[in-house]
Amino acid sequence: xxxxxxxxxxxxxxxxxxxxxxxxxxxxxxxxxxxxxxxxxxxxxxxxxxxxxxxxxxxxxxxxxxxxxxxxxxxxxxxxxxxxxxxxxxxxxxxxxxxxxxxxxxxxxxxxxxxxxxxxxxxxxxxxxxxxxxxxxxxxxxxxxxxxxxxxxxxxxxxxxxxxxxxxxxxxxxxxxxxxxxxxxxxxxxxxxxxxxxxxxxxxxxxxxxxxxxxxxxxxxxxxxxxxxxxxxxxxxxxxxxxxxxxxxxxxxxxxxxxxxxxxxxxxxxxxxxxxxxxxxxxxxxxxxxxxxxxxxxxxxxxxxxxxxxxxxxxxxxxxxx
Length: 322
Description:
- By secondary structure, the chain is an alpha/beta fold.
- It has helices at residues 17-25, 45-55, 74-83, 102-112, 138-144, 160-165, 175-185, 207-210, 212-230, 236-246, 254-268, 275-290, 301-310, and strands at residues 4-10, 32-38, 59-63, 88-91, 97-98, 117-126, 131-132, 157-159, 190-202.
- Helices cover 43% and strands 16% of the residues.
- Strands 1, 2, 3, 4, 5, 6, 7, 8 and 9 form a 9-stranded mixed beta sheet that branches.
- Helix 1 links the parallel strand 1 and strand 2 (32-38).
- It starts with a strand and ends in a 12-residue tail after the last helix.
């Protein structure tokens, strides 16, 4: 069986840490090591990690001094990666619960589809109880990265050589998004298991809540790089429109709504059966924010743009009734 190294950064997660550790040690894929990296916690997290290591030889611990001003787990994750011995490296958050089959299913997909990294779907619990959906194919992940992460990072499983060649960027608060954009640009094939592999805890202490402004900053910065790599001909005005769409802003101008429909139709044209539905949903939400009446002719703009794309029209906007 293949050794998988699971890297779990920890910062003041005593309330959840035991459950997170147990969920990894209870995996159906038994050949693993769990590297718990405490990033200078001020609670009982270090004691919990030490007890786990004493009870199970598969648990390794690293205890770091807290770096003032740090807004991500990048440094702790990199420290864990540096000592990982596995052929594959997985990420895990200290407040989540991995389902028993998580690693087994992800490893099977990664090998079957010749992926470099993959994740899976997640069921949220706590302050949010939605199903967190992510696209299955590399093409779908590339498109979804224009809006958000393409893999929920506590479900990540990657080839060790990829993780070592592309360490996390400590200056990025949203380090998982920056990492995914960067490895995609380097040619990595990313995908997701189609089933739920994680129960994702949502609460006010999460990094994306505590550092929401910094996360939004990073999304804008790295989204721009990703979009310009995929669509290098994009003009500044077109990018500004897409950024408004991606950030769920209200677009009231009917001409800009028509152009947004073309963007979404263009993004839907990839070999991933779930991506068109995701773009339809984004179009419907955009129309609602704009206050379009149910019978407004412009609501059909996305479908018309998609049809025009399929027929090879040079100017899909010509079909839209703005």
